[in-house]
Specification:
With 483 residues, the chain is of the alpha+beta class. It folds into three domains: 20-280, BirA Bifunctional Protein, domain 2 (2-Layer Sandwich), CATH 3.30.930; 297-389, Rossmann fold (3-Layer(aba) Sandwich); 410-480, Translation Initiation Factor IF3 (2-Layer Sandwich). It has helices spanning 2-10, 20-30, 47-66, 80-83, 87-90, 119-129, 175-196, 242-247, 271-280, 308-321, 337-346, 357-362, 383-408, 416-424, 437-446, and strands at 34-36, 43-45, 70-71, 77-79, 99-103, 106-114, 138-147, 162-172, 202-205, 217-224, 230-240, 250-252, 258-260, 262-269, 297-301, 327-329, 351-355, 364-369, 375-379, 410-412, 428-433, 451-452, 475-480. The structure holds ligand 87F. Ligand 87F binds next to helix 5, strand 11 and strand 14. The site of ligand 87F has 16 residues, from helix 5, strand 11 and strand 14.
Length: 483
């Protein structure tokens, strides 16, 4: 009876399609990914989720180091005068900035912002390091926490007041180098999402309305969440000379001429974990792609009093055999195999290996896939090869499934009424567009909040009219409500 109760307490009580938001809330808690705290919007990232974050960090860190980026650490605090130096870039964000005003009972002579992003503190440093073209490029990244006091309803991982991220900040001698670098980084983000997270992304440029105000242009990778909203995975900005002009980042070029430098900044955060959990999860809980799974294979021994010894011995042997994978042996007493199956399914472990007394005799195991539920009897001698093959197949299958979902949720249309109903039906529209800020303002108003998501690269100018204003279209763009 007790065991039965435990099982019930663990399952998810709604389906992903019937109530996505409740499903998400339950999964992230029951899979032991996060914990709420007394501060609204500030959550605990539990070890199981943190390990996934470490995998993302390792992947991204390796990729940026290949292109010469180094890590460093800049202060958490930003003096008010510095944050306001490039006024334009913070203007819309002011209400979100959290301030330190006192130490003990004494008031500070200048308020200190808790970094909401680090352009200002970093560029105030860069200006000391840049003298001649020989000092360029500067290619630096930092892994840190960020505070933005959001007022919208907080959602764990997806919208939190404190989050973890990386922010890269580079300085170049020419616009061409800046452009090249911003694009290189976008490709790394795309690789991270597609190869590691198995979540396909839409690469493109943000509209003038949606770009970062401090940038000349913003590139992004985007996805569609199961609730039909677009979600931005990462951004890479071409900052032009905007910050170098306000911070005085100047260098003497080969011809002894003074020039303002060209800069990029780019980031992705723990929000990407929310994307991963939401996109791949199912009615039984989390589904993790093998490349990010903290546990890739769980061995569950089927224990009866009489055969306990030999089954556990076999299970331990199997654990050794599978030692090159992230393998866990669940030999806990007091839980039924069924209860353990449910728990590991909730936690999204890609493969379960079951071994009972009959299997020991027959020198075999049963392997069950988390993504498809498919069961297979496998000979003991083949197990290592089989596990490797299955993990590869699961990674690919999750990507293909997510890609299919993404494609099914994008609808091409030239007609504004159709665009409106597409957005209403919680899908993404792909439509010819002029790209004007006024046109986007109007769209947002008429559709109850839809925005342009991004504009794919390398398009031919379509022989079409803008879906909204009827002027000549310049390209096709994605439109949806977004996170
Ligand atoms: C909130 C408060 C103050 C976003 C903010 O995208 C300032 C800001 O500048 C702010 N929220 N931003 C834009 C961040 C731009 C850029 N920074 C480096 C990134 C990626 C990493």
């Amino acid at each position: 009876m007790k065991k039965q109760e435990k099982k019930e307490e663990k399952g998810i009580t709604v389906t992903k399609s019937s109530d996505f938001s409740e499903w998400y809330t339950q999964v992230i808690q029951k899979a032991e990914l996060m914990e709420y705290t007394k501060i609204s919007g500030c959550m605990v990232i539990r070890p199981y989720a943190y390990e996934i974050w470490e995998k993302a960090q390792a992947f991204f860190d390796r990729e940026i180091k290949k292109i010469g980026v180094k890590n460093a650490s800049f202060p958490l605090f930003i003096p008010e005068s510095l944050l306001n130096k490039e006024k334009e870039h913070v203007e819309g964000f002011n209400p979100e900035v959290a301030w330190v005003t006192h130490t003990g009972d004494s008031k500070l002579s200048e308020r200190l912002a808790i970094r909401p992003t680090s352009e200002t503190i970093i560029y105030d440093t860069y200006k000391k390091w840049v003298r001649s073209y020989n000092d360029l490029p500067i290619l630096i990244n930092q892994w840190c926490n960020i505070v933005r006091w959001e007022f919208k309803h907080p959602v764990p991982f997806l919208r939190t007041r404190e989050f973890l991220w990386q922010e890269g900040h580079t300085v170049h001698a020419t616009k061409k180098e800046m452009d090249k670098f911003a694009m290189k980084i976008l490709k790394i983000y795309s690789k991270l999402f597609e190869e590691l997270y198995a979540t396909p992304v839409l690469k493109g440029r943000k509209s003038d309305k949606e770009k970062f105000a401090g940038a000349d242009y913003t590139l992004s990778v985007e996805s569609v969440f199961p609730d039909g909203k677009a979600i931005q995975g990462a951004t890479s900005h071409g900052l032009g000379q905007n910050f170098s002009k306000s911070f005085g980042i100047k260098f003497t070029d080969e011809k002894e001429k003074k020039q303002f430098a060209w800069q990029t900044s780019w980031g992705f955060s723990t929000r990407s974990l929310g994307m991963l959990f939401g996109i791949h999860g199912d009615n039984k809980g989390l589904v993790l792609p093998p490349k990010v799974a903290p546990i890739q294979v769980v061995i569950v021994p089927i224990i009866f009093d009489k055969t306990k010894g030999k089954v556990l011995k076999k299970a331990n042997e199997l654990k050794k055999t599978l030692g090159s994978f992230a393998v866990e042996l669940d030999d806990r007493d007091g839980y039924t195999p069924g209860w353990k199956f449910n728990q590991w399914e909730m936690k999204g472990v890609p493969l379960r290996v079951e071994v009972g007394p009959k299997d020991v005799e027959k020198k075999q195991v049963v392997i069950v896939r988390r993504d498809s539920g498919k069961k297979e009897v496998v000979k003991e001698k083949d197990i290592k090869k089989k596990v490797k093959k299955l993990l590869g197949e699961i990674q690919d299958n999750l990507f293909n499934k997510a890609k299919k979902f993404l494609e099914e949720n994008i609808v091409k249309t030239d007609d504004f009424e159709a665009l409106k109903s597409i957005v209403k039906a919680k899908k993404m529209a792909f439509s010819p567009w002029c790209g004007e800020v006024e046109c986007e303002d109007w769209l947002k108003d008429k559709t109850g909040g839809a925005k342009s998501v991004n504009i794919p690269f390398n398009q031919k100018k379509p022989k079409k009219k803008c879906v909204q204003c009827g002027k000549d279209a310049n390209y096709y763009a994605y439109f949806a409500k977004s996170y």
